[in-house]
Design a protein that fits this description.
mainly alpha; 5 helices; nucleus; transcription regulation; bHLH_dom; protein dimerization activity; PRE
């Protein structure tokens, strides 16, 4: 119970989101998520599932960024630092 009270108290200072705004946000998330966006419109997907898929998608994107950064770092170490290739790789890190 104490967790619910503290979350209610902390959320009372944040602006409230109306039901219509929540529905609009979930609809937008459905459109951009690959897993859910590929389903037929007639398939019902709960808001909870959309939020869960959004979190998974963001985690996957973060992993991809980390992997690409690592690969670029390795590539940068393998080329001459004054080469045009090195300049391109460095620009990708910016």
């Amino acid at each position: 119970m104490s967790n619910r009270r503290s979350s209610r108290q902390s959320s009372s200072t944040a602006p409230r989101i109306s039901d219509d705004q929540m529905i609009d946000l979930v609809t937008k998330l459905r459109q951009i998520l690959p897993e859910i966006g590929q389903r037929r419109r007639s398939d019902k997907v709960s808001a909870s599932k959309v939020l869960q898929e959004t979190c998974n998608y963001i985690r996957n994107l973060n992993r991809e960024v980390d992997n690409l950064s690592e690969r670029l770092s390795q590539l940068l170490e393998s080329v001459d630092e004054d080469s045009p290739e090195a300049a391109v790789i460095r620009s990708l890190f910016m």
